[in-house]
Amino acid sequence: MASQTQGIQQLLAAEKRAAEKVAEARKRKAKRLKQAKEEAQDEVEKYRQERERQFKEFEAKHMGTREGVAAKIDAETKVKIEEMNKMVQMQKEAVIKDILSLVYDIKPELHVNYRI
């Protein structure tokens, strides 16, 4: 009987050690997975920052800075407005004269649909 109990005790102890080893292996695996995930996130963030830097360089090279582009657009707009104002001043008298001549030149006549 004592040998059976001793054998059972040995089996229980071996099972306990095996469960501890499995638990430890699971912990190591979870730790490795977490570390790999963090490394992947770091790598993705570095890649994103690099691409952002490249885009900013490309943008600055081809388009200039945003302030520069805005200033250029403002200058072009002012020039176009000045040109339009000059054209208005040049054509103003002629347009007013044409409109007034059309308004003053009234030719009374009966409408084609009017029946007597």
From TrEMBL:
Where is coiled-coil annotated? 8-57
Report the NCBIfam families cross-referenced here.
Answer: V_ATP_synt_G
Gene3D superfamilies for the chain: 1.20.5.2950
Q: Name one GO molecular function term.
A: proton-transporting ATPase activity, rotational mechanism
A GO BP annotation? synaptic vesicle lumen acidification
List the InterPro entries. V-ATPase_G
What name appears for this protein in its UniProt entry?
A: V-type proton ATPase subunit G
Instruction: Describe the function of this protein.
Output: Subunit of the V1 complex of vacuolar(H+)-ATPase (V-ATPase), a multisubunit enzyme composed of a peripheral complex (V1) that hydrolyzes ATP and a membrane integral complex (V0) that translocates protons. V-ATPase is responsible for acidifying and maintaining the pH of intracellular compartments and in some cell types, is targeted to the plasma membrane, where it is responsible for acidifying the extracellular environment.
Q: Which family does it belong to?
A: Belongs to the V-ATPase G subunit family.
Keywords from the named record? Coiled coil, Hydrogen ion transport, Ion transport, Transport
